[in-house]
Amino acid sequence: MKTYKVFTVNPGSTSTKIAVFDGEKKVYSANVSHDSKVLEEYKTLEDQLAYRKATIESLLKENHIDLEGLDACVGRGGGLLAMDGGTYEIDDLVLEHSIHAKNGVVHPACLGPSIAREFAEQYGAKAYVVNPPDVDELQDLARMTGIKGVYRNVHLHALNLKETAIRHARNMGKKYEECNFVVCHIGGGISVSAHQKGKMIDGFDIVGGEGPMAPTRCGSVAVSDVLKYCEDKEIKTVKQLCTKNGGFVNHMGISDALELTKCAADGDKYAGLLWDTMIYQIAKCIGSMAVVLEGSVDGILLGGGMVYNEDLVAKLKGYCEWIAPISAYPGEFEMEAMASGAERVLDGEEEVKKYTGECRFQGFDFIK
């Protein structure tokens, strides 16, 4: 079986993660720091592109990393309209929609496709995005709400969720498409999702405020309570509770789970209650996803940085292990997931997909 040389790029707020893979082996990785003062000078994400690429090139040169012979470049996707999961060719439409955040969610990950495409063109390689945050495979029953014309959609850690499921299925000697899982990513943001035979058929919109409380996210709150909270506040400020200033930050000004658990261990009852409430809410969400799968669950999979915490894993097992075996995959596989997606396409295991530029769900044709 041929091995492929793949370069992966994952832009963050003040840094860009990069990695070079030779087959499944990661031969180089780094977190390229960008000067926050320089980034502040740029008015748009697109304006940052040349600076970020030059910083990456400088570090590669400094560390004598040669990208000659590259087969594929993969950029972390973002800003795209809802689509099926898979590996997508980075074409002009992907570039246009990602760099301008067509879906309205402006995040540095939107730069991933542009950076990947430029490196791919430079080295004669293919350019892809793999399972971007905009993956939406919801079943019809997960779409409806109690407000006519308002439909549910999801924003999840699709890349890491799917890779965790793919790896666990392989460990079971099966294919992802043969299994049913409840998969969680538990980090700064928390995703809980139901995977049925290779499709992520339900989950919580963590950008919209659904799901459990997280270090920086408020999680689900009753609509009436939110409306009351909004009475003397700007909508923009309230929206930030969904992704930036909610959760631990709103309660105690703490975004680091390690710091919160240390406070709890030192006897801070407020910190202890927040920590246990978050775990309780994660468990409730896991239970709801198990119901979506009608109890046919081959495993509950926990990924993300907070899964290194043994107390969190133990408590979730106490709540949920009666549903199905719980397996912990601490950390994340985002760089590996991007490389694996490219390799599956290059090896002919999967077909590359083409981004249509249209939302996967356009409403129900029988509802006028």
From TrEMBL:
User: Which E.C. number(s) belong to this protein?
Assistant: 2.7.2.7
Which parts of the chain span the membrane according to its record? none
Ordered alphabetically, the record's keywords are: ATP-binding, Cytoplasm, Kinase, Nucleotide-binding, Transferase
Enzyme group, top EC level?
A: transferase
Q: Name where it's found.
A: Cytoplasm
GO CC list = cytoplasm
InterPro entries from the UniProt entry: Aliphatic_acid_kin_short-chain, Aliphatic_acid_kinase_CS, ATPase_NBD, Butyrate_kin
Query: Looking at the keywords, is Magnesium present?
Result: no
Origin superkingdom: Bacteria
**Biological processes, Gene Ontology terms:** acetate metabolic process
Q: Which CDD domains match?
A: ASKHA_NBD_BK (cd24011)
Q: Which reaction does it catalyse?
A: butanoate + ATP = butanoyl phosphate + ADP
- Which GO MF terms are attached to this record? acetate kinase activity; ATP binding; butyrate kinase activity
Protein name as it appears in the record: Probable butyrate kinase
Gene giving rise to this polypeptide: buk
